[in-house]
Design goal:
heterodimer; A: alpha+beta; five-stranded mixed sheet; elongated; B: 440 residues; mainly beta; Immunoglobulin-like; 4 helices
Amino acid sequence: MRNPFIPFVVLSIVCTGVVLSLPVAAQAPVEFFFKTSQASLGTGESLEVEVWAKNLRRINALGGTMQFPAGLAAAQSIRTGDSIVNFWVDGPRLSGDAVIFAGVIPNGFAGDGGRLFSVVFEGAGAGEAVLSFENLEAFLNDGQGTAMPVSGAPLTLAVTLQPQGAAVPVLADVIPPQPFELSVACAQEVYEGKCFVVFATQDKESGVDHYEIRERRLHGLGVLKIGVGKWYRAQSPQLLRDQQLKSRIEVRAIDAAGNRRVMSVEPMRALAWYEDIGAWLLITLGIVLFVVVVVSRIKKKIARIGTPRSR
Amino acid sequence: MRNVLTALLIAALITGAAIPVRVSRATDYSSTHFTIKDPVVEFGSGFGTSSGFQLWGALGQPGIGFTTTTAFGLKSGFFYFLGIPAAPDGLGASVISQTQINLSWTDRSGNEAGFSIERKTGVGGTYAVIATTTANVAAYSDSTLSAGTAYYYRLRSFNIDGFSSYSAEANATTQSAPPPGGGGGGGGGGLPPPSGTSVIFRGRAYPASYVTVLKDGQIAGLTKAGPDAMFEITVSSISAGIYSFGIWGEDIKGYRSPTQTFITSLVSGATSVISGIFLAPTITTDKTEVKRGNAIDIFGYSAPLANVSVIISSEEELLKKASADTAGAWLYKFDSFEVNYGDHAARSRSVVVNDISDFSKTVTFQVGTRDVYGQPPTKCPKRADLNADCKVNLVDFSIAAYWYKRALSAAFALIEKDRLNGDGLINLQDFSIMAYYWTG
């Protein structure tokens, strides 16, 4: 009996084959555009402008520069929460009158479009502030990095001296960034073979603002291990200060609302006993006890010797 | 009469001398431990399992472990030593939950009987074997752990000849149990994600295959499909939001499917179910070049009894049909006479009842003037694996990010040329290549 699904399967294969064999230029260009709740704001008011992209099916890397006239609309902050970009290669970051961004979506995007990030602007001077894109790029998930045609639609914001009721929604973010993994690696490819730690996570609400790292050598025994170390800003791949890998490495991701997620990795190598202050404390304690015992015994002996004399 | 006998004897000698004797080459039966030289050729005895030779004697024990001081065994035919298998490498440990850590590694040997996995708690713990796998396994899920505890792992392969050396150590710390009343992530200042937000993935892969789930590009789950190829993975303890999930499978031969991606918006406190997933078949060929007129085997794995469509891309596309057996294996013998000399490509997709898979990866082959047999699967991505650990993940991403728009060192320029786009720079196109080969 003939399988009734065969014609459908053949048709779907043919259709898919046709789609896949279409020349790149025949596919719709990736469009970058802005979204905002209103197109005007007063000086001193803040407005959030979102950067979106569409026609992203099978796109796995995109980037570009967003230009703005800082004299009219000054960028205050950048939010990356709920972005479709999984890993940022560069930014999004402020650079003069521009926001630079470049990121990847491993294995390609499965939908049509989505939000990349947003910028909070403050009205700085009256006039028409034109936000635009430059140096846009998008690449196909085909293993070759085929460049796709791109386009960017500008946005004009009217900045007035009169208030326009613009306001940025307060981020009610009480959830820390997602748990993440720390991987320590020593590779000839970077830092001349020195060891480094890699990390990345996301925050679905306000977005990860930055990372900090702390390396601590822990001294002591069992659960009584203590160590000190200072937190400092970090960026993956972060070169480790303790190249002997005898420190506990802690990395914390801090989102735009200040929530923190701390992840750690235990020392790769144990401290030698003579490097452990706890061991020296124990030795010192032992010596002190020994001296105390010896001194007390000597005192007793002296006391015994002294007693007949006194008789 | 005497002359007749003499003539017959001479005729017999001449005939005997004229019979071509093809001696089996000793190197066919060598191993790292010994070589059998000059096997005796005997016609028509039917004694040996191989045609045309018989082993008359050998010195030494025929196989380690087979004969001991208290037990003796004898088997007919040749024995040869497998040799100690190569050690696995690339051991990685991923934290999944408070009680689960998933391990993955690279199988570097082709003759192992399995892998012995060892674990210790904390730096100062003592290693003990926690599991032994069968051959060609490259992942393990350790799911009986305590919250907030650091675990260390190592493993080695083994066969009848003995154990390999150990892999490098990997460690991970299970997620901490949420403190009563909140306080996020150990650093304070936040709340843990609402409990109960999770997503379940159900579908078909290949019988006894390993299925990996990526959440926003990082490994979030691993499971083994049943003999019917069905699998189910739950990713839990995550916050609400839009996620990009990817799923890929690895068949029992080590060939991987392309990654199927899903964009999912998760609602706080709810469990989402994504069902009907049907991973694309795995695909490979037995030859990289086939002599025109000879057949080339195009094969792989899919769900049991799946109908597999094989598309040969040539001047015209050719559509061929194959069927998977009950173990999911499928094979199509393609007659290379059907296409001209040159480069060709093949891919496939499967149908089971009403489910249709995506397309498989594309394999290429050449129709030429000779047969060139392909290499066994390496399990390593062909490109983008910058640190050569057979994975394309955050470490490779970070290495590339380090060199982003910077002048490359001479050593890294060679890597960039070999594994990325080879333009002497690290730019967004290189990251696109990396994203395609991403394994997590």
